## 1
Amino acid sequence: MAENDIRRKVLIVDDEPNVRRLSHMILSKKFDVFEAENGIQAIEMAKAQKPDIILMDMMMPKMDGLTACHAIRNDPETKSIPVIMVTAIGFELNVKLSQQMGANSSARSRWYLEQCHCRKSRH
């Protein structure tokens, strides 16, 4: 990497340590990766780190991903950060809820890293 190159930041939000660890391991090759284990931490990290994108699980303790996404979308400091909601349950209702809360996209968890890469490549 050239000295002037700035690595993009990714925030991984998931209550499962293994998911965070695997995501970190894969993404850290090309991105600066930050982690949060619930929606409350996600909001704090989004404000503090200003990531280029957030990959957020829907179902977490303390604060779920949908509520955190809504809060991120309604905060002037973070509203422009793209959020991709991740769920193990790919029901249409979850996709609609994600869109209503302001998510840019949603993906099923076991495929989300590949889907995110493809979506990011198109933009």
## 2
Amino acid sequence: MSISTSISRFTAYYSRHGFRATVQRAGVALKRVLFANRMVVLYCDLPGQSLRPVNIPSSMSVDRRRSEGELGHTDFQEITSFWNPKLARRNIKERFAKGASLWLIKSEDKVAGYGWTLQGRTIAEYYFPMGPKDVQLFDFYVSPKFRGRAMHWLLTAHILQTLAAEGAARAFADTGEWNQAQISSFKMTPFRRLGLVRSFTIFGHTFVSWVEKKTAEQLELTNGAKERDRAMTMARPHE
């Protein structure tokens, strides 16, 4: 994340929550940068996956949007109000322009969370290149009042099922090592841990250092049906 983007986010946070909350937020962010700035990288082989149908409660729905024109005014306002409206609007335009899809999970027609996917390339410089049928999952968010209700799991499971049906080859995702809630959610899906990585950007160039990384042989071993079935058995949505 660039310095200007970080400043913009904290300015927006300050205008909404005040000085004390912003200082506390900045302290948490600093600790993450200094002591927990590694990213957990995950992968999921989609061909041959025996993905069970995702039973989404009747009061909820998942919608896919491929362009800004498909995004209704109400949904657009809800998404941009979650964080920095100016930055959110810019990101939405840039991501749709690159061919990304926006997935919305709703509860009682209210946006509870969202996530983005992009096939064939990544939204920004990544840890490795993507194949034409590889898909990146990125920038997932669940509104605070909907957390603890398996929203992230439901959305991720639905996306993987859809991508598999469309013929995608492999999905990749990453999350901060400190984000145990999201890591736990990923564990209940067919996603598997690829490794732990630390990256930093200097003058527009991203440098990557793998702390741990699975070999090709290890990737084959972790793709067994027993492990996939065990993960899917564990996964249950909270209604």
